[in-house]
Design goal:
Elements (H helix, E strand, L loop, with lengths): L1 E10 L4 E11 L4 E5 L6 H9 L4 E10 L2 E2 L5 H7 L1 E4 L6 E5 H15 L7 H14 L10 E2 L5 H15 L3 E5 L7 H14 L5 E5 L3 H4 L6 E6 L2 E6 L1 H10 L2 H7 L1
Parallel strand pairs: 3-10, 3-11, 6-9, 9-10
Antiparallel strand pairs: 1-2, 1-4, 4-5, 7-8, 11-12
Length: about 250
Amino acid sequence: MLKIENLHVKLEEEDKAILKGVDLTVGGGEVHAVMGPNGSGKSTLSYVVSGRDGYTVTEGTATLDGADLLAIEPEERAALGLFLAFQYPVEIPGVSNMIFLRTALNAQRKARGEAELNAAAFLKLVREKAKALDIDAEMLKRAVNVGFSGGEKKRNEILQMAVLEPRMCILDETDSGLDVDAMKLVANGVNALRGPDRAFLVITHYQRLLDHIVPDVVHIMADGRIVASGGPELALEVETNGYAGILQSVA
């Protein structure tokens, strides 16, 4: 599904290399976790794949179901089924969640040549998704993320993901700033969306999230590369001993 080969990326403004040859393949139905020290390139990887400005790809490829992601605009990547849940979701004053979600969904449907949903059909869909995720329907009437707590913002991201039904979901430190209860709610939402036609790349600092979203593969990033990969036990090793031992073994 998602295939990244020898990806090298630098910051445009500083001419500084951030990614230095990342190789990563995530297949349909799989959940991969990416961990690593601060500054290792984890979030940069998510930004480049999703199309954020400010980065230059100097070498390598990134494809989704064979389509060249690096050659198309962010909205085209979204229409192909790519979704990024932000570490710090932005606020959009004056735009309700309901309008935002319907506009986003219909834009993607139109791009794929599908019929747009009318107001009644969309209302039924979004209420079903909100109920399944235990999200108060009143949240749908509020401006996007305005006045939301950290937990509400992250749950709102999961609701967006449930409505848009992307094929490739990237979660950039979704657990950042969440208490235990909020993290469990977010994890439950992610688990409810797991399936053979959808894949996840979960970027996190903490093994505790992986207690609830159990990954198929755990990758360790350092200095712009993936330096180790393994099963869920690799995250437990990091939790117990930190990164030093792993980094020394691959030095």
